[in-house]
Structure to design on (262 residues):
């Protein structure tokens, strides 16, 4: 005699592979959304970032899209994320930490419709935040693989376009700029880039890193004491004011040439 199944027994049909994949993607998306909100609430807002445009953009824009897939789980860490191990030729390049990029952009006071140049834009996250604040952004990158990643990540960001060329030359074809962000640290602001600011209202933001020890990463010192600066173009030249202490990796391509010593 064959036993009949219990009336209350539940038979689970195998879940199709595409449904499993969809469920996992939805779970990952929910996890990243939680991480974005935690990033804003624990890293950004407590560090004096109060511009609602920046906070809203950081909650909405998937920061993980601006990293190679193998680094996506580090998207919401509170440190710079090194890109050199995953992207060819990007040794010494980083995705800037959330707190530092948020404070730099807030310092720049970007207004809707202003033309903005981001030098050393990397994978484009900073450019995306500025575009979300209303800036018309040119994201300059000299690494083809980084430029490709930025182009894909910025595809949904209106008002941001990736351009490629030597970082030290800026992007004179679209000058003058209302705002220039050098996304990283410099020992000095390159005069060629500063000259591309609007003569009456041009502003430049970056991290000025003071002198330090030997530089291991293709000429870039990883951890150096620095200050965020806001430089404004005046009739007398560029006037730079320190704003707050912070650290960011030096941009090797913008290091001044070594002085000749007898």
């Amino acid at each position: 005699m064959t036993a009949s199944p219990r009336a209350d027994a539940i038979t689970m049909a195998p879940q199709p592979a595409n449904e499993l994949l969809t469920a996992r993607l939805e779970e990952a998306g929910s996890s990243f959304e939680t991480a974005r909100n935690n990033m804003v609430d624990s890293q950004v807002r407590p560090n004096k970032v109060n511009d609602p445009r920046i906070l809203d953009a950081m909650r909405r824009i998937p920061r993980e899209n601006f990293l190679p897939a193998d680094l996506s789980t580090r998207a919401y860490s509170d440190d710079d994320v090194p890109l050199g191990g995953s992207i060819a030729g990007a040794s010494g390049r980083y995705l800037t930490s959330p707190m530092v990029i948020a404070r730099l952009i807030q310092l720049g006071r970007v207004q809707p419709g202003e033309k903005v140049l981001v030098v050393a834009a990397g994978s484009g996250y900073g450019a995306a935040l500025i575009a979300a604040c209303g800036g018309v952004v040119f994201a300059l990158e000299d690494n083809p693989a980084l430029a490709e990643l930025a182009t894909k990540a910025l595809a949904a960001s209106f008002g941001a376009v990736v351009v490629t060329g030597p970082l030290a030359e800026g992007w004179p074809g679209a000058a003058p700029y209302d705002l220039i962000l050098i996304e990283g640290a410099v020992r000095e602001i390159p005069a060629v880039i500063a000259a591309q600011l609007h003569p009456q209202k041009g502003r430049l933001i970056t991290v000025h890193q003071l002198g330090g020890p030997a530089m291991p990463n293709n000429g870039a010192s990883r951890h150096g004491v620095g200050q965020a600066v806001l430089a404004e173009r005046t009739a007398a030249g560029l006037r730079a004011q320190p704003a707050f202490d912070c650290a960011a990796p030096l941009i090797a391509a913008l290091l001044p040439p070594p002085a000749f010593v007898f």
Summary: The chain is about 25% helix and 20% strand. Residues 1-13, 20-26, 213-221 have pLDDT under 50 and may be disordered. The first strand starts at residue 81 and ends at 82.
